[in-house]
Amino acid sequence: MAEKMALAKAINESLRRALDTDPKVLVMGEDVGKLGGVFRVTDGLQKDFGESRVIDTPLAESGIVGTAIGLALRGYRPVVEIQFDGFVFPAYDQIVTQLAKMHARSLGKVKLPVVVRIPYGGGIGAVEHHSESPESLFAHVAGLKVVSPSNASDAYWMMQQAIQSDDPVIFFEPKRRYWDKAEVDAEAIPGPLHTARVVREGTDLTLVAYGPMVKLCQEVADAAAEEGRSLEVLDLRSVSPLDFDAIQASVEKTRRLVVVHEAPVFFGSGAEIAARITERCFYHLEAPVLRVGGYHAPYPPARLEESYLPDLDRVLDAVDRSLAY
Fold this sequence. Notes:
Distance between the termini: 47 Å
Cofactor: thiamine diphosphate
Order of helices and strands: EHEHEHEHHEHEHEEEEHEEHEHEHH
Keywords: Oxidoreductase, Thiamine pyrophosphate
GO molecular function: oxidoreductase activity
Radius of gyration: 19 Å
Strand order of the largest sheet: 3-2-4-5-7-6-12
Strand content: 15-25%
Domain Transketolase-like pyrimidine-binding: 5-180
InterPro entries: THDP-binding (IPR029061), Transketo_C/PFOR_II (IPR009014), Transketolase-like_Pyr-bd (IPR005475), Transketolase_C (IPR033248)
């Protein structure tokens, strides 16, 4: 039976199920044990599974990921938490030089089933290094899978699927949506990990988003409907690989596309989507593919982040420009 829960609680329940089901699953990170994580995502897990399964680590991200790589080589399935998005960069070398490449380097003999959990994005009024959106940096690296749920149901099931994957998965958690609630059915898998999903049907234009921006795009579609416009909203769920077939199917129907993400537009995932869909759908498009995202600037202080982040008006402006062609 489905239960309504917050996205953070859904991840907690998913980790709990994985720990209970597979003794090789470990949870590691700064303050994940006794404190339960700064967002309480791992609350109660150490109490129930012990300090050898839910491990409080030193403040050393490269050491956390490096240790996880060694554990994975010995048959474990570590789930490591990077406390905030901007703290992942000390571990970037371990992730892209070792974690992403050892499968290829060993000609497929070595599997590294490591999940790297990263709370990401803005909207919570945090200080510097706590509101980044670095997903494109990881999506560019062959050998890594990069995913981001937008709701509690996906958070629960995508975490299960990520842990069961033999490939390393970078699991971006939209921290501004941690407290958003949705129905979670612990018995009904919503679909494969790397497939997109239409969350709202429409005919005039496609909005593509993932993670924290899916809810915004649904609000945009509601606002556009008041003006008689029918917008389709597609939740990518996965940034690498990208479900181009789903995007193409939607664009062939609506003939217009706007891509929305918090990360900067410059060299963002929207650029790859725009280029690929232009190639695939050239004769279907009635307007250029437009992108809405952050600016090519360091993330601003909290008092300015509302001006930096995409909002209803900025996305609606892109919709207007597309429909004006």
